[in-house]
């Protein structure tokens, strides 16, 4: 994706899970995911679900492990996108005042919810009481930390959006005033969840698969989802849904039926059988003549092509002329 595609301004960063319930040193548990147990992926995506980069969490062996893990993950995923004016939407697992300042120095904006016990949070933002619908904002060094009360208190952080309140329509049709940072966060944060939803329509979970094979197939599925997004974004013809796109892709990847018919493909199953035809011979042992019955042998067709003379008691009745074959040449001729 780095070499073929340049994303828009809005990006989202979140976790995704690959189902795995077996034993694994770095297996994780996330309660609000569809697959609660498995291999955790940190994913950078666009709001429409196009995956730009991902990082597998490998526990203590991970290069991003240790103190400041969340901040290291953000910079690892954004290392090719810094200094370009992108805006990253993240949840409260990543956001902090210190991280926002570091991203601002690299010309990158961030917005999202924030935990109330984060280091460098202003004290008054956690203690000030608010009525429902009220908003309190504080600004420092270009970082906006706000507190808004809906059904419960919501702490948020943004380096681009101010304290403007926007009208939004809820699911029930009522008009509600919300901070602009919260409105944009709700609009642009769902890229990873949307990608997980698209992959769930064609599940690849099988108990017989090893964890690394599941991870590899999951990567292929993400690549296929990306191809579908890019096709619909840049194709001059009508857009395709994911089902039709997968069928079209299979048709292109599978060989041409006309080409198959031109090959020497076996029309029916060929079996190596023992020659049934026999002949009677008179065998002389001293002065005694004894009549014996033996199988009529045939010359092996494969060995004859190699200029070898080999007699065999086996033949293939499905081949034209029922030629003789030794076991080795039969396997090679009918592979």
How would you describe this protein?
About 30% of the residues lie in helices and about 25% in strands. By secondary structure, it is of the alpha+beta class. It has ten helices and 17 strands. The mean pLDDT is about 90. The strands form five sheets. Strands 1, 2, 3, 4, 5, 6, 7, 8 and 9 form a nine-stranded mixed sheet that branches. The chain folds into two domains: about 10-210, no CATH class; about 270-335, no CATH class. The two termini are about 40 Å apart.
List the helices and strands and how they pair.
Elements: E1 10-19, E2 28-29, E3 37-45, E4 51-56, H1 69-77, E5 87-90, H2 97-105, E6 109-113, H3 123-127, E7 135-140, E8 143-149, E9 153-158, E10 165-169, E11 175-179, H4 180-188, H5 191-200, H6 211-234, H7 242-253, H8 257-262, E12 272-274, E13 278-285, E14 288-295, E15 298-299, H9 301-305, E16 311-312, E17 314-316, H10 327-333
Order of helices and strands: EEEEHEHEHEEEEEHHHHHEEEEHEEH
Largest sheet: 9 strands, mixed
Unreliable stretches covering 5 or more consecutive residues: none
Mean pLDDT: 88
The total tally of domains equals 2
Q: What fraction of the residues are assigned to beta strands by DSSP?
A: 25-35%
Q: Give the count of helical stretches.
A: 10
Shape: elongated
Distance between the termini: 40 Å
Write down the Rg. 34 Å
């Amino acid at each position: 994706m780095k070499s073929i595609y340049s994303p828009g301004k809005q990006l989202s960063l979140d976790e995704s899970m690959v189902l795995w319930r077996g034993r694994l040193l770095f297996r994780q548990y996330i309660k609000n995911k569809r697959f609660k147990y498995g291999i955790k992926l940190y994913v950078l995506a666009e709001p429409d679900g196009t995956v730009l980069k991902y990082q597998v969490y490998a526990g203590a062996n991970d290069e991003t492990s240790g103190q400041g893990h969340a901040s290291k993950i953000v910079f690892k995923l954004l290392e090719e996108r810094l200094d370009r004016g992108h805006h990253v939407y993240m949840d409260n697992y990543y956001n902090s005042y210190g991280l926002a300042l570091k991203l601002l120095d690299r010309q990158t904006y961030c917005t999202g919810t924030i935990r109330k016990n984060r280091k460098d949070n202003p004290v008054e933002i956690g203690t000030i009481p608010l009525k429902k619908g009220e908003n309190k904002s504080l600004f420092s060094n270009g970082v906006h930390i706000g507190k808004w009360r809906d059904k419960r208190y919501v702490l948020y952080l943004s380096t681009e959006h101010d304290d403007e309140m926007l009208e939004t329509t809820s699911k029930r049709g009522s008009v509600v005033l919300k901070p602009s940072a919260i409105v944009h966060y709700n609009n642009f944060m769902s890229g990873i969840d949307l990608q997980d939803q698209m992959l769930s329509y064609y599940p690849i979970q099988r108990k017989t698969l090893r964890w690394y094979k599941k991870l590899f197939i999951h990567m292929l599925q993400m690549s296929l989802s990306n191809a579908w997004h890019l096709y619909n974004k840049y194709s001059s013809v009508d857009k395709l849904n994911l089902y039709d796109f997968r069928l079209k892709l299979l048709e292109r990847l599978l060989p041409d039926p006309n080409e198959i018919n031109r090959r020497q493909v076996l029309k029916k199953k060929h079996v190596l059988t023992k020659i049934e035809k026999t002949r009677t011979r008179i065998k002389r042992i001293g002065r005694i003549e004894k009549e014996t019955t033996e199988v009529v042998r045939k010359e092996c067709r494969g060995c004859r092509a190699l200029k070898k003379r080999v007699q065999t008691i086996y033949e293939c009745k499905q081949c034209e002329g029922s030629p003789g074959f030794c076991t080795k040449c039969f396997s090679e001729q009918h592979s």
